[in-house]
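Hey team,

Filing this mostly as a record. A colleague (T.K.) asked me to run one chain through the structure pipeline before their review meeting, and I want the input and output archived in the tracker in case anyone asks later how it was produced. No errors, nothing strange. Just documentation.

Input sequence:
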Amino acid sequence: MSLTVLIGPPGVGCSVVAKVLAKQLGANLVDVGRTVAQRLGVDPNFAIAQVGEERYRSCEADVFKLSLSAPQEGAQVVAAGSGWINTPGLSQALAQSDAQVICLSAVDAVLAQRNGLNVPRSAALGTVRRDFLLAAHERLSQCRALASLEIDTSKKLPEQVAAEIMTHLKDADACKYA
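Output structure:
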């Protein structure tokens, strides 16, 4: 099985890039966030708010582990994001898998825009943008430690990012058999 896992903080494009990449590879696609929401019977955009973080993370851990170990014919692309990264055992499971792990990143202004944090907000809400970016930076640091490649998606179309990943996968495959 050829397994490629895309990781990174919210807004870097893991889901959309994984969809493009899976299509280009003719591979099975597992979008962890969407699969979790589907299993829980909730809207993917509001899943944590609807079922609570503990229940969501528990289901996410199950889906994530299954995506790394499920026997599949051919290739599989997993859009994993980074919500799972602090769940005990999951980083180790990814590191011990045969997956090509790709970290997607973006600059702060792009992350804020893609997550709807580029508009004025009431001061009563506190420092939402700053808090989000601090959490995103922490997750990105953890993701970088697991990845063989990092791609900044800030100024690239999903197709361009997928093409870079394809090149990396071909090079990695060539090294494996050299």
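Quick notes for T.K.: The CA atoms of residues 49 and 70 lie 29 Å apart. The domain at 2-166 is CATH 3.40.50.300 (Rossmann fold).
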